[in-house]
Amino acid sequence: MKKVYDRKLRFGIIGTGWIAESHVECLKEMEDVEIAAGADLIPGKAEAFFKRYGLEGVHCYPDHKSMMEQEKLDAVCVCTYNTTHAECTIDALEKGIHVILEKPMCVTQKEAEDIIRAEKKSGRVLTLGFQPRLDENMKMIKKIVDSGELGKIYYIQTGGGRRRGIPNSTFIEKSTAGIGALGDIGCYSLDMVLNAVGYPKPLTVSGYTSSYFGPNPKYNNPKDAARFDVDDFAAAFVRLEGDIVLDFRIAWAMHIDTPGDTIIMGTEGALRIPSTECWNGSVGGPMKLYKDVAGAQVEMEIPLCDGEYNSHGVFYSKLRAFIDAIQTGGRAPVPSEQILYNQAIIDAIVRSAALGREVEIQFSDIS
After folding, report:
1. What's phi and psi for 159, nearest 5 deg?
2. What is the CATH number of the domain that holds 124?
């Protein structure tokens, strides 16, 4: 059932690349939303984008600052490349505009902390674009952990990736992406398990990154290979509060179908979550719960949810949840304080890989 409020929210789109397409397709369906403005650094790109979607009267600007200076907006979708996420989000919050920020949150932990400071000062809703949380199978993972069936969680293995799935465009250069597979799909994998176990604070990280495939024309388009300078594989051993260990790996390309299923191990049981062929925000098949029952070792299959609960799709649901929070004065569907920990782990993996040793994660005061 669609929710419609009397108040119509004026939206701006910052960045009109491919991810903005999903935002606009969903927002067009919502009667309490008006797509009022858009901004893109490439001349003519925003105009062509909105024309393609049959949206007339959308005011287009060459940058987000001029758009926000001249338009009265309630909310913006930040759909730019990673290295501008922090700037665009902070500028919007300082203008008193609500923000839905696409993943990854940004590039560094410091940027994430700066974003949260601006959020707290603004009093506006800031949510992060982690739509897999709204998948019913993903929700089931958290329900199982919260039920206590696994007991105390002490070890998590997670990750995934693609045998061949290197993107192009702004994803593969440090000047625009900042980070590669680690930020693109690694942030999703981290959120899946960290959200399930209540987002414990990360303490230390021993990380590794490599790029053996992206710069190699044998595995990548020669033009893209020549400009590729981010990670296409990353792995880490992360210690979390509560005496939990997280074993993580992610890939855009590798010589194997999967680096392993996701496993959550507890003192009373364990959960196996099958990997997907291409990390897509859901699970790769029925999950299995391992328990001892009456002295016997048993395995219980958790049937997959068929998606009937999310007829509009999880991307629509994440935007709808953001709008509902604005309309009702509610909380952000995906709170920034949680994704700060996600970003801190990513940042620490990069730092640890560069130093060749374990690093400690320390957080600044963001009150």
Report:
1. 150, -135
2. 3.40.50.720
